[in-house]
Design goal:
Strand content: under 5%
Radius of gyration: 13 Å
Structural class: mainly alpha
Number of helices: 3
Shape: elongated
């Protein structure tokens, strides 16, 4: 009965991805850019989130 870090890490990433998607939807960007960012985050959950935090967060 070991403690699984993978499960907790997965839940944290899921929560952060949902938060990012909600921030994207609430943002003022165009529909096309919102859709593109959401697709990037859904297809690449960890890398997409990092890219959005660095490059896209302030632009929407």
């Amino acid at each position: 009965m070991g403690f699984e870090y993978g499960g907790i890490l997965g839940i944290i990433i899921l929560i952060l991805d949902i938060w990012a998607i909600l921030q994207i939807i609430k943002g003022g960007g165009s529909t096309g850019s919102k859709l593109l960012w959401i697709l990037i985050i859904l297809l690449l959950p960890v890398i997409g989130l990092i890219i959005w935090l660095v490059a896209g967060r302030n632009r929407l």
